[in-house]
Amino acid sequence: xxxxMSKSNxxxxxxxxxxxxxxxxxxxxxxxxxxxxxxxxxxxxxxLNQFMGFVHAGVVTGLADHAAGAAYASxxxxxxxxxxxxxxxxxMKPTKGxxxxxxxxxxxxxxxxxxxxxxxxxxxxxxRVHCATALVTLRAIKTGAP
Length: 146
What we know:
Blueprint: H1 7-18, H2 21-25, E1 29-34, E2 37-42, H3 57-73, E3 80-91, E4 99-109, E5 113-124, E6 127-142
């Protein structure tokens, strides 16, 4: 349960985290945010594509992972964050579209370990194609702990 941190404060914190490093460079943005469920999106760019013009698998995996982390973190009490300890992804179709997004939903939210499913879609003109599914295991840690 989220104690003193409200949903809007948690979303604001996550948006700040997303606006740094790899996630900022990749253009990840919050599309939807709720307790146990987060959707992130990005606009594909040539510099994020692989040689055939599809979004690079590393970027797709990063999007799925970051959405999963936010979804699990949204279930943790104030003062805890999470880190990925294992990630398995199935890349089912080449990822392309005007927008690419990851919908992450918590499957299991323990006090120490959480499991999240993160589905990645490419979307063009409102039509979405399911491109990848990641199963992400995360570990809760105290804020600032290694």
